[in-house]
Amino acid sequence: MQLEKNEKIVKTNNVIPFIPTGDFYFAKGVESFRKRRFDTALKWLKKAVDTEPNNPLYQCQMSIIYTETGAYHKANQLLTNVLQSTGDQYVDCYYLLANNYAHLGLLNDARKFAISYLDKEPDGDFSEDAKTLLDLIEIDDYDEEDWELDEEDELLVYQETVFHHLENNEWNQALVLLEEMILLFPDYKTAHHEYTHALFFTGKREEAIQKELELLEEDPNNLYSHTNLALFYFEIQEYEEYQRHIRALLNIYPIHEQQKLRIATTLARTGFLKEANIRFRMLDKGVVKSHISYYRWYSMTAYRLGEPAKALALWEEGCRRHPKLSEEEGPWH
């Protein structure tokens, strides 16, 4: 009996305790990330960083997860820390920063970091992506400059007036002006999409859908076609077609704040409340506070997700900025 007892003690003493390392946590985090289980991936990466706080690789991977979940500011903080602590050894951080700033709508910052990346790694892993990003920024700038220089004043007056009518659901007034805009500025595509939107809500649903489908055929990746058709099909309860267009929107992350808001409100109006809430939180409030739709649909989303205090605060702020909003029913209705 004593011999058996001694053998058990020897066996027990030979057990080597498992102490997880940073690499163990990192590997688990990457595994979860590849399965798109982002919350779990973040938990593992945080453990890795806690174990080895000076390991830049762990922080870079964590920043990528933050980017995937739309937490661009948190991602940028990590990437900036890596660049400061490593003396530019992790050049990929420049492209990742450029990508994040583009999503935030900060195009000058995005351009700066994309150029820095290409200067340091002209043939790097992200060189083609960086060049594409710069091309997109230049196209965006060109489109804006083109309209600013070509009959700028007249177009701006139309844009502002139509915007006011659409935001206040004054569909008939918007239609009249949009018809004029299309005649005067036929290449200004947004007017065509706003026309079908207003047309649908004046009751001419079939005509609006047909016109939007024609626009989609001309440009299959157009953001406004997908937002309009998702909303139209949802309203007429053709859910199979609705799902096709709403799924396309879930993978689109535009640069412009107005386009980001368009996706957020479409998601909110068609029941994708959690996804809408994420998109609303990503918006630059300084840019979108002039939109009644921001307060109308963000407050409704917050209320239905069980945040009545936040909903009330948004609604009250919206009514202060846009007194006409107070004539509508609040998010609790």
TrEMBL record:
PROSITE patterns reported for this sequence: TPR
Keywords of this entry: Repeat, TPR repeat
Keyword Protein biosynthesis: no
Record InterPro entries: TPR-like_helical_dom_sf, TPR_rpt, Ycf3
Statement: the UniProt record of this protein carries the keyword Protease: no
TPR repeats: 22-55
Protein name per its UniProtKB record: Tetratricopeptide repeat protein
Biological source species: Ornithinibacillus bavariensis
